[in-house]
Amino acid sequence: MLSQPPARPGSSLFVSFEGPEGAGKSTQIGRLLRRLESAGRPHTVTREPGGTPLGTRVREVLLDPDLTIDPLPEFLLYSASRAQLVANVIRPALGRGEVVVCDRYADSSLAYQGAGRGLDAELLRGITAAATGGLWPHLTVLLDLDPKLGLERAARRGQPDRLERADLAFHQRLRQGFLELAAAEPGRFMVLDATRNEAELEHAVWAAVQSLLPDVDR
Ligand SMILES: Nc1ncnc2c1ncn2[C@@H]1O[C@H](COP(=O)(O)OP(=O)(O)O)[C@@H](O)[C@H]1O
Ligand SMILES: [Mg+2]
């Protein structure tokens, strides 16, 4: 088994959203949060990189279009942000029995810096295990999208950042990387076709979350 889900005190649940820029992660997270609010489920939403004061500073560095960052230091910066986020936000929220919803998590590093930039997968997994203490989501929603469509959607939002301007071949490798991660852990991943309409996707996500929270109001 590649990942070890955390123990679940009370009704805690850790859900991550993955996929390329423009896939609809923020859109679906917003919809899931409204569902959780209606169901009266305590929850915490966060994102990578970011989510802590350190993570926010690291995010500014990582997304700065004026900086050239090599793949290994890029990965280490993500890992630094992740370590702080796990320790200060995610584990405490799970400990309080909350649903934690994270916009990107370690799978993004494995896909971007592994499949995308060619760093050794075992190296990435070793450092990720150290940064997270082996914490992986119970459910990872992968919004799968043709990179061309994703870039078009992201471009409509405004100025592209450093990641969005990387070339199409990179984005094709990234998509393959995500799909391979999902294939290796079908019990954790739910792969959704991100071209489906927003309401359909919302229903699929909510059904999966409900199945992991058996006492939620239906
Ligand atoms: N299912 C969908 N179908 C069509 N467009 C969508 C869908 N979900 C999101 N979008 C649009 O695509 C763009 C990117 O969505 P967003 O949620 O910001 O993606 P991400 O957070 O993955 O980068 C937004 O303009 C959004 O309105
Ligand atoms: Mg987003």
Automatic annotation (TrEMBL):
It holds the Pfam family Thymidylate_kin. GO terms for molecular function: kinase activity. Keywords: ATP-binding, Kinase, Nucleotide biosynthesis, Nucleotide-binding, Transferase. The keyword Transferase applies. It is an enzyme of class 2 (transferase). Its EC number is 2.7.4.9. Residues 17-203 form the Thymidylate kinase-like domain. Phosphorylation of dTMP to form dTDP in both de novo and salvage pathways of dTTP synthesis. HAMAP family: Thymidylate_kinase. This is Thymidylate kinase.
